[in-house]
Amino acid sequence: MQDITISIQGSRPLKGSVAISGAKNAALPELAAVCLSSETIEFHNVPLVEDIKVMHAALAEIGAQGEISGNSIRETMPVLRSPLVSVQTAQTTRASILLLGPMLARHGYAKISFPGGCPIGERKIDFHLQGLEQMGAEIQSESEYIVARCRRLKGIEYIFPGKTVTGTENLLMAATLAEGTTVLGNCALEPEVTDLIRLLQEMGADISGPDGETVVVRGRTRLHGASHRIIPDRIEAGTYLIAGCFAGNEIHLQGVIPEHLGSLLEILKDMGADITVSAEAIYVKGGKSLAPAEVITQPYPGFPTDLQAQLTTLMTQADGVSRIRETIFNDRFRHVGELNRLGAEIKIQNDTAIIKGPARLRGAVLKTTDLRASAALVLGGLIAEGETIIQNSYQLFRGYENMPDKLQKLGAAITISRG
Ligand code: EPU
User: Fold this and answer.
1) Rounded Cα distance, 212 and 284, in Å
2) 13-29 mean pLDDT
3) How far apart, in whole angstroms, are the C-alpha atoms of residue 392 and residue 386?
4) Number of domains in the chain
5) Is the pTM of this model over 0.85?
6) Which of 229, 261, 291 lies at the terminal end of a domain, its last residue?
7) Is 35 one of the catalytic residues?
8) Are 247 and 221 in contact (CB under 8 A)?
9) Which domain holds residue 236?
């Protein structure tokens, strides 16, 4: 993995427009859906971030013929050439687990290394495996691999014991080619899941719902090709929206679906940011003083865990004590120690970060461990006086397309060096 260092000269006002890229977490399961058909699937508005490149490479490893052109990708998988998704691929992106359901459904066999991804706490996949086993798959673990086999999968009724985004996506994809009807209850219904449902329908899948949190899939014998435009990335948009709330900043976000950012917009307005929302754009101007807030991460439409770290950075600038309780992952506060090195006053109490503001941040040398923590530190560096250096920044590029370029265009003094 390449080492990347980000340097930021902070305390400069950010002003201007930023175009939001396609959603990484929609593009990942949608690329995995290529395994479900022998026909070509075209994707548009694909964010060319590292995780997507790894998924594209994983598809090539197992037999897809793919071509990237700008922000579009065409993939065709005539046959599954190899059922093996390697340790190297799976350790780089956790989304490799999304290949399990589609590979089993169309090919009846898959050997996938246990997934890696961001170190943000326990990340189980027991519901994925339980659901696929109930559909008739035989699943074993062989050293670092999950090995799964089946004849044709069978429709089931399955209520997820807890909300899982990729678990819902895996079983939905598997069910499209299963024999009979699958009823999935307590589904995660993040916008990325509904965008996947839209793609599967475009490929000819018979899916109805969501009705409440239930989705019904009537299995088909084959799916066909499609051309699909990926939704905008609400987490990228949320990150720039938060940056726009710093004193002195004024940012226009272009190409967003504001409804997907409902919980964040509400919190930021309550904190005192000046926000105007139109059909596909959001304008944000930093408030002179920000009020503190109490926030809990929750499945959609609640406040997303993927914006918890970035909002924590903003809360260091609020006038008083803010709290964020993390309920989705059990170890997602690794940015806190680094923000404190910048001068923030944040304490962790069980599952809650307690943030005392306003703190005067000053540049420091930081190290990052995961994707969203990296974004939080970049935001910290933008606020801080003087130079902030963020080492080990590869993670940022797993999920944010051209972030340094986009910030430079807004007026930030940010550079990267690779070594
Ligand atoms: N869980 C189980 N059993 C399962 C699956 C999940 O107990 O079988 C638990 C997990 O341990 C966790 C919680 O349920 O505590 C939620 O996990 P979920 O499965 O929803 O997360 P995920 O599907 O692995 C996706 C995103 C994450 C995002 C989470 C939550 C993708 C590729 N990843 O992960 O995105 O944080 O949903 O919204 O869609 C990111 O982009 O930075 C990122 C980490």
Assistant:
1) 33
2) 98
3) 20
4) 2
5) yes
6) 229
7) no
8) no
9) 4-21+232-418
